[in-house]
Amino acid sequence: MYSRTVGYDLIGDIHGCSRTLKALLGRLGYSCVDGVYRHPSRRVIFLGDFIDRGSGQCEVVAIAKSMVDAGTALSVMGNHEFNAIAYHTRDPVTGGYLREHSTRNARQHRAFLDAYGNRPVDYRAVIDWFRTLPLWLDLGALRVIHACWDRTWIERIQGYQAGGRLLGEKLLLESCRESTWQFEAIETLLKGKEITLQDGAGFRDKDGTLRHNIRVRWWDRTASTYRQAFLGPEGGRTHIPDDEITGDHLVEYAHDEPPVFLGHYWLEGTPTVLADNIACLDYSAEKPGGKLVAYRWSGEKQLESKNLVWVDRAETGANG
Ligand SMILES: [Mn+2]
Questions:
Q1: Which listed residue, of 51, 70, 177, 224, carries a Cα 20 to 30 Å from 42's Cα?
Q2: Ligand 1 centroid vs 48 CA: distance in angstroms?
Q3: Which domain holds residue 24?
Q4: Gap from CA of 287 to ligand 1 centroid (Å)
């Protein structure tokens, strides 16, 4: 059925914005037939982070899951799906939840918990579905991961799980214990490479939380200061010290490696590719001024900004 597939449309972090998602699928030429969005010759790859924040939690999950089930889409896991699994799952040893039910964690997860509050069966089914999402996809000519393609961690997980790229039971448990290598691996792959600012320097993030770590342009050999290496909303950059970076912030990703697609980084402004073979498609779909962004990939080795397609949040209404 999909032998005629000529390309993939990669879609960034949706965060419960169902109207924006439907508008973007329409713009890309997908139509809903028998309850499943499909395209005559293309498939979607979702970059994860379907949930939290927006008002269309259940509908976003339903659209994505129906597409994956029908083979009209693939998807990787985002850090919000990982957190949802850990929030739901108990540690078999301590009996406590793998992700603490603290006020802060509950607040971050509120829209999702509320959406499924009266639907415990659906809630469990969604968590089960999240557990089927791979941590990365390597299709040969393109790669997909939520935040950072770090081959060292990818290979270590493959060794640990006999090649598996799913979140196995052991990996889930170990990655929720902060002193383990599995914790470090999942942090890097799903939440990005972070470095600590010098001398206790800090900045306030979008939620007003004081942070001492920044997410970095992990592939970028030209970035030599903390401010240059910062990867995130432009508004945050001016708060980052322009001091030389001490220590290592790089993950090797050569210019001749296959294109890799990322979500995660809350970018702002006009979407552009980050490098010839790296594109981030997270443009803060749920924030005022945000966009839901796709890249129409048709086999090219060198990514081009002209292949980016998006829907402004404002077109579909607040929180849409
Ligand atoms: Mn996200």
A1: 51
A2: 7
A3: 7-193+251-316
A4: 11
Contact 255, 277 (CB under 8 A): yes
- Is the pTM here over 0.90, yes or no? yes
Q: Which residue has the higher pLDDT, 204 or 30?
A: 30
Give the domain CATH number at 76: 3.60.21.10
Taking the C-alpha atoms of residue 126 and residue 119, their distance in angstroms, rounded to an integer, is 11
- What integer pLDDT is reported at residue 3 of this predicted model? 44
Ligand 1 centroid to 317 CA: how many Å? 20
Q: Which candidate, 78, 73, 14, 76, places its Cα nearest to that of 44?
A: 73
**Residue 230 resides in a domain:** no
* Distance from C-alpha of 213 to C-alpha of 205, rounded to nearest angstrom: 10
Asked whether residue 244 is domain-assigned, the answer is no
State the distance from the centre of ligand 1 to the C-alpha of 119, rounded, in angstroms.
24
Separation CA 100–CA 271 (nearest Å): 35
As beta bridge partners, residue 283 has 291
Say whether pLDDT at 169 is over 80.
yes
Which pLDDT score is estimated for 5? 61
Q: Which residue has the higher pLDDT, 81 or 211?
A: 81
- The whole-number pLDDT of residue 2 equals 46
d(CA 69, CA 89): 24
**Average per-residue pLDDT for the chain:** 93
The reply to whether 23 falls in a domain is yes
> What is the DSSP secondary-structure string of 33-77?
ETTEEE-SSEEEEE-S---SSSS-HHHHHHHHHHHHHHTSEEE--
Instruction: Calculate how far, in angstroms, residue 227's C-alpha sits from the geometric centre of ligand 1.
Output: 22
pLDDT over 70 at 320, yes or no? no
With respect to residue 229, please indicate whether it lies within any of the assigned structural domains: no
Tally of structural domains, the chain: 1
Environment class of 282 (CB within 10 Å of its CB; exposed 0-12, middle 13-18, buried 19+): buried
